[in-house]
């Protein structure tokens, strides 16, 4: 503790904004508000659900899979997986924004694992593989938590190689909505009189157990393209202009 010019000890500064931001009560209140928005969008949108037959069957059989999505399409992620048929664990960031995503997803009945810079990849992978051994699927925004936008990480490939589980790309789009001014251009659908689509498609490639770095890179690019293709397809189905890289 420092001293004033009169030799008196200074009182420690209280950062009110930080205390509010870190308050469990405030964080839970914000999470509930976000969840309410997601439910309103879902309730007031006419949805098509396409390509889910295989995933639904696997979920009912208790067979876990790896679900890949883009960070831009997180706003309806609680409805990506058939939670009435099986369980899924979402990988989130331990940073404030990622922690909030986890809180929201937990309100919908999803499990979460926080991925932090302090947690070694080996430890995280061990935790993820443990979940899959319990029959719990794993979901990850493969360009998160900070981007670059739509640059897929190798993480889902590593888990597919280690587990031998199937990989499904899932996305959604909505006719009416706007993109937030965030690094991922998060799609925020309108909450009334909207049309939307959930699109699920399996990525059919296999990750060899002893894949070389060159093979991993080729597979990474292939899965990245798969995700861009299905997201563009979903956009076109609702009359939305597909994503293009920022100049």
Helix and strand layout, with pairings?
Elements: H1 16-21, H2 24-43, E1 45-50, H3 53-60, E2 66-69, E3 88-93, H4 96-107, E4 111-115, H5 121-133, E5 137-141, H6 155-163, E6 167-174, E7 177-179, E8 187-189, E9 194-203, H7 213-237
Parallel strand pairs: 1-9, 2-5, 2-6, 3-4, 3-5
Antiparallel strand pairs: 6-9, 7-8
The rounded Rg comes to 20 Å
Biggest β-sheet: strands ordered side by side in the sheet = 1-9-6-2-5-3-4
> What is the N-to-C succession of helices and strands?
HHEHEEHEHEHEEEEH
* Most strands sheet: 7 strands, mixed
Overall spatial form: globular
Helix percentage range: 25-40%
Strand content: 15-25%
**Measured distance between first and last alpha carbons:** 49 Å
Low-pLDDT segments, ≥5 res: none
- Count helical runs: 7
Write a structural description.
The chain is an alpha/beta fold and 247 residues long. Helix content is 38%, strand content 20%. The chain contains 7 helices and 9 strands. The strands form 2 sheets. It has a 7-stranded mixed β-sheet with strand order 1-9-6-2-5-3-4, with helices on both faces. Strand 3 (88-93), helix 4 (96-107) and strand 4 (111-115) form a beta-alpha-beta unit. Helix 2 packs across helix 4.
